[in-house]
Amino acid sequence: MILDGADPLAVLRAAQALARGDLLGLPTETVYGLAADAGSDTAVAQIFKAKGRPSDHPLIVHVAPAEGDAAVPAGVGHYAATVPGFAEKLIRAFWPGPLTLILPRRAGMGAAAAGGQDSIGLRCPSHPVCVAVLRQAADLGVFGVAAPSANQFGRVSPTTAAHVASEFGDALLVLDGGPCEVGIESTIVDCTRGVPVLLRPGAITRGQIEQACGQPLRGKDDMAAPDPRASGTLEAHYAPTAKVRLMTAAELQKALDLLGSEAGRTPGVAIAVYARSALVSLSPKVMLHAMPADAEGAARQLFADLRELDSCGVQLIWVETPPEAADWEGVRDRLQRAAAA
Ligand code: TXA
Ligand code: MG
């Protein structure tokens, strides 16, 4: 059932559902989450079950923004044992917003959400409907809300309430907060290794993080310690049913020319390019689709575009390789994973 997130009564019902230990489809500025009370291991177990996600893959716990003069939200102290200085700088710079920090976990807190690890992923989102739910839930004794993206394990993340309903059916309560502004999941920085380590690129870029914390951001490949299990960082992820391939504009045109001469026997192909395309296709089975030419717009549209092209029943989705520029890293990352499936 989809309820309007602008309705205060719907927000109250959502918070009450969380306090009861039920699941909730929750809008955030990045993607919609499948939410449950992070303080209840049985509620969190339902998330893993509904998603078909292995229960040792850690989830992100969402906390309400800080009140008054405080810089660090109260929920952080609830779930994290310590906050290193550079992590606090990142909190001041980017929260509420699309950044997740991995922090040392407070003993006994959020064990199921953390997938058994001794760290916890915390995020303070900015979406007004999400913030209203988190505040209301805190009043009911729910101090953190575990929420992975609201999609079946390995599939494309949802950026509208309707996407969530199509993944989990009508029985799930979903708050509609409109289409997500950011469109790809939060940037994740591991703050448990003494230096900041980028685990997942997102809308907040490397450069912005380095500037805010005043030190270089490492990549996880620079680090000796093994990575924690992390499904958003698996090689093959975010996959539609059709096979995704990345190609340059020149490769796309070459492939189109080949298809043209095979008319009649060609498989259904959807081709997604940035901005208006000069591509020419002779096959009626080829669908050309223009995506936004700016990194922010492309991120916002990415998952909805993949879902839409997939729903046309094509066997192949050929996507133009995104630009190399730093602000395209999140989109590049998601497309490479979609293509690896
Ligand atoms: O934008 C987002 O972050 C969305 C929205 C709903 O907030 N949430 C999201 O959650 O993407 P999820 O559960 O799909 O992403 C969880 C990822 C894991 O795959 C892992 O990469 C990282 O967060 N993570 C969470 N807790 C961790 C931990 N304790 N140690 C290492 N990585 C962790
Ligand atoms: Mg996910």
TrEMBL record:
Identify the EC number(s): 2.7.7.87
Q: What catalytic activity is recorded? A: L-threonine + hydrogencarbonate + ATP = L-threonylcarbamoyladenylate + diphosphate + H2O
Please give the InterPro entries that the UniProt record associates with this protein.
DHBP_synth_RibB-like_a/b_dom (IPR017945), Sua5-like_dom (IPR006070), Sua5/YwlC_C (IPR038385), Sua5_C (IPR005145), T(6)A37_SUA5 (IPR010923), TC-AMP_synthase_SUA5 (IPR050156)
Q: Name one GO cellular component term.
A: cytoplasm
Q: Could you state one GO biological process linked to this protein?
A: regulation of translational fidelity
Keywords on record: ATP-binding, Cytoplasm, Nucleotide-binding, Nucleotidyltransferase, Transferase, tRNA processing
- The protein here is known as Threonylcarbamoyl-AMP synthase
